[in-house]
Amino acid sequence: MLRTKTKSKKTQQTMDEKLNTLRAGVLGSNDGILTVVGVLFSVAAATSNQFTIFIAGLSDLLACAFSMASGEYASVSTQKDTEKAVVERERQLLATNFDDELAAVKRHYRALGVTEQTSQAIAEDLLAKQPLKTMASIKYDIQLGHYMNPWDAAFSSLFSASAGGVFPLVAMTFLPTALKWPGTILAVSLSVALTGYLSAVLGKGNVKTAVTRNVIVGIITMFIHYYIGTLF
Question: Averaged over 48-64, what is the pLDDT?
Answer without folding.
Answer: 92
